[in-house]
Structure formats: C-alpha cells, structure tokens
Amino acid sequence: MTARILHAVSLALVLLLAPASIANAAAGPVDMAPINAMDRAAFVVKFGAIFEKSPWVAEKAWEKRPFANLDDMHAAMVAVAKNATAEQQLALLQSHPDLAGKEAQAGTMTASSVAEQASAGLNSLSAAELAELTHLNAAYKAKFGFPFIIAVRMHTKEGIFSEFRRRLQNDTQAEFANDLQNVYIITRLRLNKLLNAS
C-alpha cells in the first residue's frame, strides 16, 4: 500500500511539474504578434494539428487572443479541451493511434505521431515486443474504450511498456484523466517543435 501511495505522489509531482519543464524546452521566447494577428482560418491551418485530428481545439482557442506568450496560448487550448463535453473528450482520445498499431503498420499516422513513436524506438520493435504491444493495445481498448496515450518523448521504450502494464490496472476514470493529461503534455511538445522549426 505504501508503495502505491508513493507512486501516486510521484506521478502527481511529475504531472504538476511537467508543464514547466516542457515550457523550458522551448528555444527562447516566441514573438506572439504574428500569431495574435492571424485570422481564425490561418490560425487553424497553422495550429489545427497540435491536438491530434482535432482542429476544433485550435478554432475555439483562437477566440482567446491576444495571447501573452506561448504558455498562455497552450493554456487556452488546454482549457478548450478541459471544458469540452465528455463526448468531445472521448473523441479526442479516440483520434490518437495505437502505439505501433495498425495505423503505424499501414503508414497512415499523422507526421507528428510518426516522429513521436520513432523517437522512442517504437518503429523498430522486435517481433516479441510488437506482439506484446499489440496485446497491450487490445487489452487497454477492450477495458477502457479508448487508446493508451503517453507522451512517448518523455519516456524510454522500456518505460513505455512499464507504464502500459501499470496503467492497465487502473479504473476507467483514472485512465481517462491520465490520457487527457498526456495529451496536454504531447500538445505542448508539438507546439514547441512547430514554433522552433518555423
């Protein structure tokens, strides 16, 4: 029981501190003037893919301009997702591909998902690893009704497998929250990458 409590506390600290550490990964301040000057259509074209196949998040967040900085902009996007209906949140989770799943095999994942999964070596699994991940994906979706989502850039391949097995023991409410929290981390990393590259 003590180990579980310690793990819960450490996970809470990671989730609490993650946004700050992720924000610090951005290469210097971003000039927000051009972003704030965008009309809705241009903003959605630029940032609509930050939340996986869910441009409605960027479209709604645009209404919160002007953004003081990148933290403010991401917070506006996260607020849209947090204030969405349970059905919209479920659709957001279900828009994410399985790790090394059918979409990866078929080459139909988004460019962001391809790069993220490759960063953890999920594109070069052994036959045994792929078989285990296929089993874990199926078990997770059968239990919860949405895919396992993890910010793979923050984990090693071994860490991902470990988290997958651990989180399978949780209840649906906990995993819905875990998935959403990981979406928020993923989207901040994507936002940093997009703006650093442009």
Topology:
Elements: H1 2-24, H2 33-36, H3 40-47, H4 56-61, H5 70-82, H6 86-94, H7 102-106, H8 111-119, H9 127-144, H10 157-167, H11 172-197
Helix pairs in contact: 1-11, 5-11
Report on the structure:
This protein is an all-alpha fold and 198 residues long. 67% of the residues lie in helices and 0% in strands. The chain has helices at 2-24, 33-36, 40-47, 56-61, 70-82, 86-94, 102-106, 111-119, 127-144, 157-167, 172-197. The chain starts with a helix and ends with a helix. Residues 1-17 have low confidence and may be disordered.
Keywords:
198 residues; mainly alpha; globular; disordered N terminus
Offer a concise description of the structure.
The protein has 198 residues and is mainly alpha-helical. It contains eleven helices and no strands.
Mean pLDDT: 88
Instruction: Kindly report how far apart the N and C termini lie.
Output: 48 Å
Low-confidence stretches: 1-17
Q: What spatial form do the alpha-carbon principal axes imply?
A: globular
Largest pleated sheet: none
Helix content estimate: 55-70%
Percentage of residues in DSSP E strands: under 5%
**Count of helical stretches:** 11
Structural class designation: mainly alpha
Rg over CA atoms? 17 Å
How many DSSP-defined strands? 0
Q: What quaternary form is this?
A: single chain
- Please write the string of helix (H) and strand (E) elements: HHHHHHHHHHH
